[in-house]
Amino acid sequence: MRNIIIAGNWKMNKDLNEVEKFCSALALHASTHSEERVWLIVAPAFPFLKLSSQLLEGQPVGIAAQDVSAYPNGAYTGEVSAPMLRSLGLEYCIIGHSERRQYHCETNQSVRDKQLILRKNDIIPILCIGETLEQRDNGQTESVLLEQLDGCFEGVELSRGDELILAYEPVWAIGTGRTASPQQAQEAHAMIRAWFRQKYGETVANNIHILYGGSVKPDNIGELLSQPDLDGGLIGGASLQLDSWEAMVETAVKIMETRI
Ligand code: PEP
């Protein structure tokens, strides 16, 4: 059975003091919840990765970077490499987020390269895909998702399904307050899982965690997580406040406890 993953993407939010306060409070809260099958991950900005790992050391909270270079080292001003992240002891890294695809020319090809270099460095990619509103309205959701999957996994091997986490994030639902309905999300997740089944077989399809992202908040997370193919959330805005983070984690714990 798959666990539930609650991952907070802080994007370009929180300065040093805010990260310090927030992580200290997170550490306290994380130590009080004992459901091992709910995994927590937070993704602070690059400068605060080390501090966040120190403040959350010993707590069941993984740390993710929000991006990585596709290159291992060299003359790439402003970039951060997978070996650098590895040297910080990081476990996860988000790649292919729609904001990076939109503002930083991220392509399926570069997401594929980033996936490979992260895995080579024992960091689990949280790989994002999703369609725009225009694509959904034109009935292209399925073809766009399949094209993204084909591109991001071209020539990529998977054998267990825990080598990476996939995040389905409809672009029209990110930061807009407009969430996909649980049925729309389930439909996309089932299609994505079927793609993994066809390409990599039953074990990978059954084990891979597929997270939903797009205006997840305390009042909709329960219904979303009740869908059979939703294994958690990649959450932006609502992960920035402690009370909403705690409420979402508590809902996830309750749902996980009802699963056998
Ligand atoms: C995200 O940052 O991946 C995201 C889904 O943001 P929000 O929850 O704010 O829509």
Entry keywords:
8-stranded parallel beta sheet, 260 residues, TIM Barrel, binds phosphoenolpyruvate, alpha/beta
Strand order of the largest sheet: 7-6-5-4-3-2-1-8
Question: What oligomeric state best describes the polypeptide chains here?
Answer: single chain
Write the CATH architecture name.
Alpha-Beta Barrel
Average pLDDT: 95
- What is the alpha-carbon Rg in Å? 17 Å
DSSP helix count? 11
Report the span from N to C terminus.
Answer: 8 Å
Helix content bin: 40-55%
The CATH superfamily appears as Aldolase class I
Quick structural overview:
The chain is an alpha/beta fold and 260 residues long. The chain has helices at 16-32, 49-55, 82-87, 98-103, 108-120, 133-137, 141-152, 182-200, 202-207, 218-225, 242-258, and strands at residues 4-9, 38-43, 61-65, 92-95, 124-129, 165-168, 209-212, 232-235. Helix 2 links the parallel strand 2 (38-43) and strand 3.
Describe it for me?
- By secondary structure, the chain is α/β, with parallel strands linked by helices.
- The chain is built from 11 helices and 8 strands.
- Helix 5 (108-120) crosses helix 7, helix 7 packs across helix 8 (182-200) and helix 10 packs parallel to helix 11.
- The termini are close together.
- It has one domain: Aldolase class I (TIM Barrel, Alpha-Beta Barrel), CATH 3.20.20.70.
- The longest helix is centred in the C-terminal third of the chain and has 19 residues, at 182-200.
- Strands 7-6-5-4-3-2-1-8 form an 8-stranded parallel β-sheet.
- Phosphoenolpyruvate (PEP) binds next to strand 8.
